[in-house]
Amino acid sequence: xxxxxxxxxxxxxxxxxxxxxxxxxxxxxxxxxxxxxxxxxxxxxxxxxxxxxxxxxxxxxxxxxxxxxxxxxxxxxxxxxxxxxxxxxxxxxxxxxxxxxxxxxxxxxxxxxxxxxxxxxxxxxxxxxxxxxxxxxxxxxxxxxxxxxxxxxxxxxxxxxxxxxxxxxxxxxxxxxxxxxxxxxxxxxxxxxxxxxxxxxxxxxxxxxxxxxxxxxxxxxxxxxxxxxxxxxxxxxxxxxxxxxxxxxxxxxxxxxxxxxxxxxxxxxxxxxxxxxxxxxxxxxxxxxxxxxxxxxxxxxxxxxxxxxxxxxxxxxxxxxxxxxxxxxxxxxxxxxxxxxxxxxxxxxxxxxxxxxxxxxxxxxxxxxxxxxxxxxxxxxxxxxxxxxxxx
Length: 392
Fold this sequence. Notes:
This protein is an alpha/beta fold. 39% of the residues lie in helices and 20% in strands. It folds into 3 domains: 1-56, no CATH class; 74-174 and 328-391, no CATH class; 182-323, 2-Layer Sandwich (Nucleotidyltransferase, domain 5).
């Protein structure tokens, strides 16, 4: 309630003062009455602070989700038929590529299709390269592989940097059939541990410590089927390895093939640039704000989303908590294909992580084929796609 004792101007003492509305603080929890002196033009505010009586931001109350029923009949079908269907889909995806050797000097390259097929079979079965050869011999009899490579050739091709763009394209192709059902997406990053250890001297405790080195996978995933639409692998630390810097490339790759309506991410992605990039892509960003954010500055999108999160926390966090599905995606990949990398150097680590994501995407396609009754999930539209030319 406005105080009545302020009747004189603080500067000239005139009684010709008028009220000019309230002045709310940045959090809209308190306010002061503004005044204007007609005699000297002095603008001042009431010195006593009041609780805002016409604004009370609602409190967020966590509401647990109802348990989702599982279609066990179709789930069993997907699991029982996963391996033969995976070989068929993998063979179809590799048929979309046309490999050509441009360097005629030295020994001819081993068939890249057979090598990529063997690499993905190794990752799917979580076997060593030697044990994978026996599986490839059986697949050779079934017509999936023309020539079985040696185990040393298979491991040597994990080190090829030329395979990285091919594997990234395969992630895109294996996610493409689900573009009709995926509209909401979530972004996050996770680490895959290696066999190497890093050492440093801890100044606080005055001793040398060591920690296992890991490689970082930044992904954007659909919240319905957990399919990975884009993936970028970086080192664990250094320039360009932060979550915020990788958000826009992940979003851009996803918007090429998917109609993005919502994107949810955690506090690590909270920045004006990321919010504006999401809105520019035609989607709404559900990224929470840090406790010290005031909603000020020149960012219009930043201000509107901050006000929306503050005034409607229940609705905002309902959309934001869809990002929990990206944690489910990480669990699915690591539980099924291991969180430990069997290769040693960085280039091989990158290709191994990308192979894990491809195998995961194909498994998501098979689950969607049975559980969501999507016929197109079994296809990759090879008939409508021109073969991708790859020069090696």
